[in-house]
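TASK: fixed-backbone design
INPUT:
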């Protein structure tokens, strides 16, 4: 068994985790100072969002130098020290790699801007003449995931492709130099002890080089269902991944995780034995709070990965989606991306959302496979949905013409303390304002408080490593309508009451943990582990 087969990976959005120097921006030394917290929480690994040199137009997913650390986050020496210290705590470090695009400030793009049409420098990206007599129309009608056209025009008439912000030009993966460079970047970090990579936009690298039109609005983190799409999920991706895998296999114990928003039947192709070790399973995140649907989704996820002998993964939140405590507190079928801006906001039931979030995480942690947690979910944090327009930083806000609020509400700096200029995040105000209710949700407020969400996570992770990681089996149990039950190889059972009546749990079993303390009565929107 490898560490990732049942690993708990904690996602650190570095900019918002802990600020060591009081500039309001989280940094590597802040993270280093909190490794003790992560080790007490019981995580096996951290995945750190991009920390490379970057203008931070898209929170660091716009890399200007893959071998340097963004000075606002620290130095290369800090990153090396972090890896060493994390390892000393028994925590692996997964680095976020962004191969689909660079920042427009990357030396390659700067060189391309200063070069002629059809130059070698431009061939590293997708530069094209436009349509129309004067090249005035974009080369295709492709739209950017963040809104607007996916093409931007230069003064000399050439257009360049950017599936995201205009400061994130897409690299041309048909270009051998691009491939070689990214492999060298991988070695650079593996040689420094990184335990693997989370690959950004893993489904987007390869484009249809005949550049056909394709009318479809792109939306972040929604998979395209179209077959033969001009830029998503093309067959040419897989040989690239196989090369990477060979490279990783030269090292011990390293992992490749795909961020691939593709149709469910396409995902296993990324997980063949010579490709990725894991891919995020976004179906679970996107699923609704309905027992039959959840059970069906889990069964098909387990079957899909079993067919290629890969590990299942589960995730409820990340830095791109509305926090799950909030999503689960909204009426079924609310489009939470649009709800952020359009509301009505009074339909959010925060208590209901938190109760469901606590139950959902216990359910997820009991499933076979590995789990990704997003910083702050262990505090039961809700989305900060009411950030004022003037502080919004996500490029989605501007590019969508203020029709989509974007992803800042799940990226508000973590409250470590009940009081203080940024609630223990740093010594000055944080880069995004923290709401008043954050102090009461802080680590300090929840630490050692029986029944707090933080203590629930700690207890669950400790019990998980004892009872729930030894095997990959889950046997469904007979359950009343609206309830899901399954038993793991250790004999430990997990029960989740989604929408049924209060359920009496089998009284001949010892209760290990519940998301609400009620003896053997399991109320709606709660979960229990029994032995
Ligand atoms: C997916 C990342 O998770 C997201 O935050 C980013 O904006 C896009 N990829 C573009 O890199």
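OUTPUT:
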């Amino acid at each position: 068994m490898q560490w990732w087969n049942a690993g708990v990976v904690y996602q650190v959005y570095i900019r918002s985790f802990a600020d060591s120097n009081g500039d309001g921006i989280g940094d590597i030394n802040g993270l280093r100072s909190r490794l003790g917290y992560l080790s007490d929480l019981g995580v096996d690994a951290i995945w750190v969002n991009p920390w490379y040199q970057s203008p931070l137009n898209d929170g660091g997913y716009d890399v200007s130098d893959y071998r340097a650390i963004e000075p606002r986050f620290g130095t290369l020496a800090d990153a090396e020290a972090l890896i060493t210290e994390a390892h000393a705590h028994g925590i692996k470090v997964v680095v976020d790699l962004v191969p689909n695009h660079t920042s427009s400030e990357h030396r390659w793009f700067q060189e391309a801007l200063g070069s002629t049409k059809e130059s070698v420098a431009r061939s590293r990206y997708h530069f094209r003449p436009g349509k129309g007599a004067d090249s005035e129309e974009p080369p295709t009608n492709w739209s950017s995931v963040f809104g607007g056209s996916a093409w931007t025009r230069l003064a000399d008439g050439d257009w360049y492709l950017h599936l995201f912000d205009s400061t994130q030009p897409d690299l041309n993966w048909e270009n051998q130099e691009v491939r070689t460079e990214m492999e060298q970047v991988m070695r650079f970090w593996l040689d420094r002890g990184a335990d693997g990579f989370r690959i950004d936009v893993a489904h987007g690298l390869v484009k249809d080089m005949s550049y056909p039109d394709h009318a479809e609005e792109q939306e972040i983190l929604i998979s395209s269902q179209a077959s033969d799409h001009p830029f998503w999920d093309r067959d040419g991706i897989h040989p690239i991944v196989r090369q990477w895998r060979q490279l990783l296999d030269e090292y011990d114990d390293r992992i490749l995780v795909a961020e691939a928003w593709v149709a469910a039947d396409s995902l296993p192709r990324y997980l063949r034995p010579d490709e990725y070790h894991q891919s995020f399973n976004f179906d679970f995140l996107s699923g609704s709070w309905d027992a039959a649907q959840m059970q069906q989704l889990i069964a098909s996820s387990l079957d899909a990965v079993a067919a290629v002998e890969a590990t299942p993964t589960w995730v409820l939140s990340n830095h791109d989606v509305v926090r799950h405590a909030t999503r689960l507190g909204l009426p079924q079928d609310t489009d939470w991306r649009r709800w952020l801006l359009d509301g009505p906001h009074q339909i959010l039931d925060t208590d209901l959302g938190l109760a469901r979030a606590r139950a959902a995480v216990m359910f997820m942690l009991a499933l076979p496979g590995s789990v990704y947690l997003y910083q702050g979910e262990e505090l039961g944090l809700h989305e900060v949905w009411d950030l004022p327009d003037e502080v919004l930083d996500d490029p989605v806000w501007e590019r969508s013409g203020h029709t989509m609020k974007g992803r800042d509400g799940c990226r508000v700096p973590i409250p470590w303390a009940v009081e203080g200029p940024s609630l223990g995040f740093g010594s000055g105000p944080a880069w995004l304002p923290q709401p008043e209710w954050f102090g009461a949700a802080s680590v300090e407020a929840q630490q050692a408080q029986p029944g707090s969400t933080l203590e629930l996570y700690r207890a669950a992770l400790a019990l998980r490593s004892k009872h729930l990681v030894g095997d990959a089996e889950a046997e469904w149990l007979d359950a009343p309508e609206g309830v899901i039950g399954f038993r793991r190889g250790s004999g430990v059972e997990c029960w989740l009451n989604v929408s049924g009546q209060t359920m009496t749990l089998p009284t001949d079993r010892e209760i290990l943990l519940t998301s609400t303390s009620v003896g053997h009565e399991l109320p709606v929107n709660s979960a229990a582990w029994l032995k």
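COMMENT: The first helix runs from residue 28 to 33.
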